[in-house]
Amino acid sequence: MTAKKTTSVPRPNRALPSKGVEWLHNPIFNKGTAFTEAERDALNLRGLLPPQVQTMDDQVKRVMTNYRNKTSDIERYIQLVGLQDRNETLFYRIVMDNLEEMMPIIYTPTVGKACQEFGHIFRRSRGMYVSMKDKGNIQKVLENWPTRDVKVIVVTDGERILGLGDLGVSGMGIPIGKLSLYTACAGINPTQCLPITIDMGTNNETFLKDPLYIGLREKRISGEAFDAVMEEFITAVKKVFPGVLLQFEDFGNGNAFRLLENYRNQLCTFNDDIQGTGSVALAGVLSALRLTGGKMSDHRVLMSGAGEAGMGIADNICAVLMEEGLSLAEARKRIWFVDSKGLIVKGRTDLVAHKKHYAHDHAPCADLLSAVKAIKPTMLVGVSGQPRTFTEEIVKFVGSYNARPVIFALSNPTSKAECTAEEAYTWTEGRAVFASGSPFAPVTYNGKTHVPGQGNNSYIFPGVGLGVVATGATRVTDAMFVTAAKALAALLREEELAEGRIYPSLKRIHEVSLKIAVAVAEEAYQSKLATQPRPADLPAYIASQMFKPEYPNYA
Predict the structure, then answer these.
(1) Dihedrals φ, ψ of 192, to 5°?
(2) DSSP readout, 320-384?
(3) Percent helix, percent strand, percent coil in the chain, to nearest 5
(4) Would you call 190 helix, strand, or coil by DSSP?
(5) How many CA atoms lie within 13 A of 191 on its CB side?
(6) Beta pairing class for 443-445 and 448-450
(7) Phi/psi of residue 80, each to 5°?
(8) Residue 551 is among the residues annotated as catalytic for this protein
(9) pLDDT for res 13
């Protein structure tokens, strides 16, 4: 018997399975024990399932019982990935109902460990793998994907995974995790999401010697060879998935800035490590101003780390400073950088192009401590990937002349954080305005409980993506990310601020993503980048586009 296609099926871009057992082996359509009696007759499932029909709530109880019996986060990660590979609808119901608990598992910090062990825990392929060996044939490779209705692609080459370095193909956990958050946080339909890893080789000697590594055991290519593969890939994406939103993720510093500049005007694309991080950090800064008082131009920012994240944050802060009336040159003078060679100053001859914008006239400082003492920042931001670099001496010094020192330890995963929440609060006698990249538990100091902010990009990129997809925007602009940051900061409630939070609770992430999507959509229409007609009720229209993890009726 042929199944009837109903309008409630949230899977518009896939053909229905044809045989009974295929329904059970397809994670998009599988309902497991929740297939009804009528569906079991209609889809030839009799005998292929236990006789008891269960509700989704019954299935949730079983999954959560097993989940909470696991003894390690990596085991919980493996369980959730397995569920996603069996039953996507149930997976998203579980994640969306328990996002605060699940996000550290499906994304940072656990995803970092999962990437390090990716070849060892690999169960089933998800997404697409394009190899440098596919050069000359990349379009045909992409055409193997079963649908053309793809709205969002997240692509990596695995060279700079979080703060863990070159993980090669094992970095695939990041695009998979990011796209899970596009759905869980902003309701992008999971069937319209495509994770891709481009295997350019790896310089990770451990992986090159590991018989279970699933990528090419060759050294990483660079220069013209790298650029040729990327050019062919971008050309193929535009042909196979026209109008798609392409997110660059975890490319090395040497390639990330160039790729963004080369392609940002050729297709709808952005780099989350640069623009997404810059946006979420700016939102934290704007929230912090409500605690410190004053305007952005009253502050001096010192960034520890001058890579993609640092430059993205600095550029977004400059946008706000310019709104306060400063010129671009004046705005940049409010922001200082320390890299592995010390303070970035004009006298240095080793600076790459993106660092020169923030090279100021000043005597050299060899390390972070001497730079902090020379610059006396009001805001200290860590994006270096170097753990524990915000020492007690540094944090106490910043706290000595700031009533509310702003300390952002944003490096991921938790093991790479520049300092812990407890250290920041303790060393400043509870006065720090603190944010981190990975989650930290609340800290009680002198009887007051502080809830540290987590500057997680998941506050930003899902909502930006939803706004872009809903409007059919042809480009992603820097203004969209500044707009998103302002929308996020505006959503912070007074009671959340009183707890020390500078970001809204993750329990509000669907509200947050919708508000950001609407703000980004407004920017797309104002900039004449939208291709979809503007609906009469924009918030209601965007809300109607958001995926809900509910089982449709196939009978």
Answers:
(1) -105, 15
(2) HHHHTT--HHHHHTTEEEEETTEE-BTT-S---HHHHTT-BS-----SHHHHHHHH--SEEEE-S
(3) 50, 10, 40
(4) helix
(5) 20
(6) antiparallel
(7) -70, -40
(8) no
(9) 62
Mean pLDDT of the chain: 95
Note the pTM of the prediction, 2 decimals: 0.94
Q: What are phi and psi of 198, to 5 degrees?
A: -100, 115
Give me the phi and psi of 314, to 5 degrees please: -60, -45
User: What distance separates the 2 farthest-apart alpha carbons in the chain?
Assistant: 80
Q: What is the pLDDT of residue 3?
A: 45
Find out whether the peptide bond into 50 is cis, omega within 30 degrees of 0.
no
Active site residue 31: no
- Residue pair 220/200 in contact by the 8 Å Cβ criterion: yes
Q: Which domains does the chain have, with CATH numbers?
A: 101-267 (3.40.50.10380), 272-555 (3.40.50.720)
- The separation between CA 246 and the C-alpha centre of its own chain, rounded to angstroms, equals 13
CB 418 within 8 A of CB 411: yes
Instruction: Render pLDDT for 489-507 as a digit per residue (tens, 0 to 9).
Output: 999 999 999 999 999 999 9
pLDDT in tens, 471-488: 999 999 999 999 999 999
Its sign, for the CA torsion 361, 364, 366, 369, is negative
| Catalytic residue selected from 178, 416, 486, 515 | 178
What digits encode the pLDDT tens for the residues 22-70?
999 999 999 999 999 999 999 999 999 999 999 999 999 999 999 999 9
Rounded to whole angstroms, the Cα distance separating 252 from 355 reads 15
> Residue 500 corresponds to which tokens in the numbers above?
């020390």
pLDDT for residue 1: 42
| Residue 19 binned pLDDT confidence (cut-offs 50, 70, 90) | confident
The residue from 107, 263, 503, 551 that is catalytic is 107
Q: What percent of the chain has pLDDT over 70?
A: 98
pLDDT of residue 4: 42
How far apart are the C-alpha atoms of 45 and 52, rounded to whole Å?
Answer: 13
Query: How far, in Å, are 90, 189, 204, 310, 552 from residue 279 at the CA level?
Result: 31, 24, 31, 11, 37
Query: Can you give the pLDDT at residue 2?
Result: 44
DSSP letter, residue 188: -
